[in-house]
Amino acid sequence: MASDPKIYNFQEVETHNTTNDCWLIISGKVYDVTPFMDEHPGGDDVLLSSTGKDATNDFEDVGHSDNARDMMDQYCIGKIDANTLPAIRNYIPPQTPQYHHGKTPEFVFKVLQFLVPLLILGVAFAARHFTKKE
């Protein structure tokens, strides 16, 4: 990368999202990984799934080797303008109703699924015991 790196905005980077034109944003830098698509050990689908967003977490979660990190320099084409990145949305799970143990039909059904086979087994043992000839 040159001493005065090119600054890209997110809208430009996110358009490079195909096998023949693939750019990634990792740790504030922009990488053109198009030449690496066929060589990537995880396949090109892994790289394509990381386009159109900040792929830093995707990259770090995999646990890349030092060799992989050293290779990144040859694909770096500039930096991302952090002001153009979309805000990260935190996942807020939907509110679920309070679960009252033993008060729902699902719980009764699960208990019956457990007890009915035991009852059948008990009846079978009792029948065997009382019909057994001595």
UniProtKB/TrEMBL annotation:
The chain crosses the membrane at residues 107-127. Pfam families: Cyt-b5. Coiled coil: none annotated. Keywords: Heme, Iron, Membrane, Metal-binding, Transmembrane, Transmembrane helix. One of its GO terms (cellular component) is membrane. It is found in: Membrane. Residues 5-81 form the Cytochrome b5 heme-binding domain. InterPro entries: Cyt_B5-like_heme/steroid-bd (IPR001199), Cyt_B5-like_heme/steroid_sf (IPR036400), Cyt_B5_heme-BS (IPR018506), Cytochrome_b5 (IPR050668). One of its GO terms (molecular function) is metal ion binding. SMART domains: Cyt-b5 (SM01117). It comes from the Eukaryota. Belongs to the cytochrome b5 family. This is Cytochrome b5 isoform A.
